[in-house]
Design a protein that fits this description.
Length: 142
C-alpha cells in the first residue's frame, strides 16, 4: 500500500467482508434451503461449519481497527520519510566537509531505514555522545 487512500480502502473492505462472512455463518450457513447450492461442491466450504465461520471471523474482526491504525500510520510514516528525503537530500549533497558529509549521509540513511520510534533520540541520558564530546547535565555548552 502506497497511499493513505489505499490503506483506508483495504481497512474498509477487510472489515466489511469479515463482517459479511460472520453474518453468513450466523444467519445463513445452516439454511436447509441452500442444501443444493453449488457452494457445497467446493472443497473449501464443504466441511466448514457455521460455528467455525462465526468464531474465525470474530477472531479476525476483533483486532481489525487496531491493525488498521498500524497500517495507516505505517503509510503516513513512509510519506513523511519520503518528504524528508526529498527535502534533505539536496542540502546534504551541497556539503563539502567530509565529517559533516558523513553525518548527513548517516542521517539520510537513518531516515530511509528507520521509523519514528527508532530515530527518536530519547532522553539526553540515553543519547550517545557525538563527535567525542561528552554530554553535560547543564547542556552542550556547560
Amino acid at each position: 500500500m502506497k497511499t493513505l487512500a489505499d490503506a483506508w480502502n483495504w481497512y474498509q473492505a477487510a472489515k466489511l467482508n469479515l463482517a459479511r462472512m460472520q453474518r453468513l455463518g450466523e444467519k445463513h450457513w445452516s439454511d436447509l434451503s441452500l442444501a443444493d447450492a453449488s457452494l457445497w461442491q467446493d472443497d473449501h466450504f464443504r466441511m466448514l461449519e457455521a460455528a467455525d465461520i462465526i468464531s474465525q471471523s470474530t477472531v479476525a474482526l476483533k483486532p481489525i481497527d487496531d491493525l488498521a491504525i498500524v497500517v495507516l500510520f505505517s503509510v503516513f510514516e513512509s510519506h513523511v520519510r519520503d518528504y524528508l528525503l526529498e527535502l534533505l537530500h539536496p542540502q546534504a549533497e551541497s556539503i563539502n566537509d567530509p565529517i559533516l558529509r558523513e553525518a548527513a549521509d548517516e542521517a539520510l540513511q537513518g531516515v530511509k531505514d528507520g521509523s519514528f520510534f527508532s530515530t527518536s533520540a530519547g532522553t539526553p541520558e540515553e543519547a550517545e555522545p557525538r563527535f567525542g564530546r561528552p554530554r553535560h547535565a547543564g547542556g552542550p555548552d556547560s
